[in-house]
Every structure is written in C-alpha cells, then in structure tokens.
Specification:
single chain; mainly beta; 18-stranded antiparallel barrel; 20 strands
Length: 330
C-alpha cells in the first residue's frame, strides 16, 4: 500500500514539472458463489481499484499502473473460512524516452513494462520472459527490464527491420538475463511482423519468436525453447475473426515439460449497443485425459463508464463458480 502511494505522489510531482498528466482508473465490486456437487456453498466478495497514470512530454513518456484489492471474509455454509486481507500490486512502472540517432531514433525503456513481445493473448509462447498463464484467471507479471531500440533500416512500402537490446533486471523474481529482439515489420496483406527474441544467463538460454498477420483470420504463431534444455519448449497460436455482431477467437498452447495441450475457443456476440454475451470452453488434454471448463459471461452497460457482468465458470477444482461484478471506469 505504501509503495503505491509513494509512486503515485512522485508521479504527480514529476508530471506537474515536465508534462500534463492524465489519470484513468476503474473501481470494481465483485460477489461470488462457489457450489460443489453436494450443494455446499462458499460465498466470496472483493473490491478493487486500478489506477493508470500516463504522462507525455515531447519524446518522454512515463506510466504507472497499479491495483489495490480488498478481499472480505468468505463463508462456507455460515462458517468463516478466509480472513480479510488487502493486496496491492504494481502492473506497470516504466520510463520511456527517445533521442535522435542518425536518421532515426534510439528509444530507451526502463522499468516494469507491459509485454509487447509475441501474441500477448491468453497464451504467449513468443516471449522469452515468463508467461505462466494456463487459466483464464491467471495474472501475468510484467518483467523489469532496461532496453534500447532502434530501426536498423527502412525498406519500401513501410517495411522495416528493428533491433532492441534487452537486459532483464533481477527485481522481484531475482532472475537476470541479457539479450535482444529482432523484428521485421512486413506489413503486407497477409503478414504483419516477424520477430525473434533471445535472453540468456548461466542456467538458461531462451529463444522465442513467431509471426502474425491476416489470412482470412487475424493470426499469430509462436514458439519458445530453452537452448540449454531442448525438452523445455512450447508453442502457441491464436486465430481471430471479427464480424459486425460476432467475434470468433481460438487459442492453443502446447507445453512439452508436462506434455499438455490447452485449447481456448471463444465466441462473443453483441446483442445490442449496451449488452453482449461471451462463451468459451477451456480444454486441457494430458496423457489421454481431458478436462472441460465451460465459461459464459453476460455484460451490460448501465451508462457510460458503468458496467455490470454476470459470469458462470466450471472446473474440477472449483466446481461451479458464479460471480457478478459492477465496474466504474473513470
């Protein structure tokens, strides 16, 4: 809690000196009900506030995004099972600036940055950083890095090749690596960006990359391997198709360390200007066994900036989970 307040105050002070600062955020209230096969119930409730601070001044940009979550006592058939607690986290906290270099720029980036490598969907094997997300409820921890990026040269039709030198800093997880990323912006009718990243230290050397584009579907195909342990590899894919009323999305991830295939097909339907419905089937296949976890969610816009949603999710661990959330975005 204290570190969020300190960062917030420092950011306001910096913004007042160097640039006009904008602040956005969201406040949410959530109530949940767990129901097992014996009809035993567990009630949960929580609230959270997210703050997003952004400042730009010429070629300088800094961002802080943090969240504060309050969890209230849960009850299982009237008995308290979980104590109230507060959790704060910083999702982003970085400074970015660029300086002229020959005919282009050198872009410097330092801090806890959002992932912009690879697919960045539910599954993402295109990043050399840890991206352990094999559930729709998993959170991704953004890495602390220092990097410098430049455009090596620009080709015809806005095609370009870019190089970024990256150092992963041993903050929070104690892991440090050094390496880089090479991207080729193809930007034609079928191909978007071809990229490859490499990070290494004494114990592991992670090579990752892939390609995205459009060929009937918006698509992305990515892979990752540890060159010091070839059995440690994974690959992911996403497909996306958007129509005026319906959006189709398919994602898949294969991880060799546990020989598991994860599938995540999703269909979203826009009912009218205020409401929409989403349904998905999270599927896990391992050694001939499979687990199906259906998910359905209804979203309704009460008025501008105020939304409510009702969601049902089933898994063998939580069994039946029903929760409702009301969110105000400001």
């Amino acid at each position: 809690m204290k570190k969020i307040c300190v960062l917030f105050i420092i950011s306001i002070f910096m913004g007042s000196i160097f640039a006009t600062t904008s602040i956005k955020g969201a406040y949410s209230l959530t109530g949940g009900l767990y129901l097992d096969s014996s009809f035993n119930t567990t009630e949960t409730s929580s609230s959270s506030i997210d703050l997003y601070l952004l400042s730009r001044s010429n070629d300088v940009k800094y961002t802080i995004k943090s969240s504060l979550d309050f969890y209230y006592p849960s009850t299982e058939d009237g008995d308290t099972t979980v104590e109230e607690y507060i959790q704060d986290s910083i999702e982003q906290a970085y400074l970015q600036f660029r300086v002229p270099y020959k005919e282009n720029y050198l872009t410097f980036n330092f801090g806890k940055t959002p992932l912009d490598i690879g697919g960045d969907w539910l599954f993402n094997s295109g990043t050399p950083f840890d991206y352990d997300k094999t559930s729709i409820f998993d959170d991704v921890t953004n890495p602390w890095i220092a990097s410098v990026k430049t455009k090596l040269f620009e080709l015809e039709d806005f095609q370009s090749i870019n190089l970024e030198v990256i150092a992963k800093l041993p903050i929070e997880d104690g892991d440090s690596k050094i390496g880089g990323r090479l991207t080729y912006d193809i930007n034609n009718s079928n191909f978007g960006t071809l990229e490859s990243s490499f990070l290494t230290n004494y114990s592991s050397s992670i090579l990752s990359g892939g390609i995205n584009g459009n060929y009937f579907f918006d698509y992305g195909i990515y892979g990752k391997i540890d060159l010091q342990d070839h059995s440690d590899f994974e690959s992911s894919i996403y497909l996306l198709k958007i129509y005026p009323k319906i959006t189709y999305k398919f994602e898949a991830l294969y991880t060799n360390d546990d020989e598991t295939l994860y599938l995540f097909p999703t269909i979203s339907f826009t009912i009218d200007t205020k409401s929409s419905l989403s349904t998905a089937l999270f599927t896990t296949l391992n050694d001939g066994d499979f687990e199906l976890s259906p998910y359905i969610s209804y979203q309704f816009n009460i008025l501008q900036g105020l939304d409510i949603s009702a969601t049902y999710f089933y898994s063998t661990d939580t069994e039946h989970l029903i929760f409702a959330t009301i969110t105000h975005k400001f």
